[in-house]
Amino acid sequence: MAKKIIFSEKAPAPIGPYSQAVLINGTLYVSGQIALELATSGDIKAEAKGVMENLGYILEAAGMDYSHIVKSSIFLKDMNDFAQVNEVYGSFFTSEPPARETVQVARLPKDVNVEISVVAVKE
């Protein structure tokens, strides 16, 4: 059972002692992604899109895409942003969206407004 560290230069580098993603037995565990450069824009949709794009870069580095995601976790600074983030998130899944939870948290890394982590499987 060998694990493989997945890294994409297109996505933000880790800001701590963790990997962007770890692949083991066909399952990819992607660390929470943020869009730091968009966090202060005041545009939650743009920030959410940036987060989803960062996830896509990591999926691509592992030879996967959004269709391989089976579980996601969305962390919001403000649950009032739910509808807008949900709209952006949903646009990345044309059919059979993954299982998911969305929670409001007190604070996120680098004071961003949204962070998303996923688990993807390639059979």
From TrEMBL:
Question: Which InterPro entries does UniProt cross-reference here?
Answer: RidA (IPR006056), RutC-like_sf (IPR035959), YjgF/YER057c/UK114 (IPR006175)
- What family, per the record? Belongs to the RutC family.
One GO CC term, this protein: cytosol
Q: Does the keyword Nucleotide-binding apply?
A: no
Q: Does the keyword Hydrolase apply?
A: yes
Q: Which organism is it from?
A: Rhabdobacter roseus
State the CDD domains in the record.
Answer: YjgF_YER057c_UK114_family (cd00448)
**Could you tell me which Pfam families the record lists for this protein?**
Ribonuc_L-PSP
**Name recorded for this polypeptide:** 2-iminobutanoate/2-iminopropanoate deaminase
According to its UniProt record, the EC number is 3.5.99.10
Q: Which UniProt keywords apply?
A: Hydrolase
MF-aspect GO terms: 2-iminobutanoate/2-iminopropanoate deaminase
Highest taxon of source: Bacteria
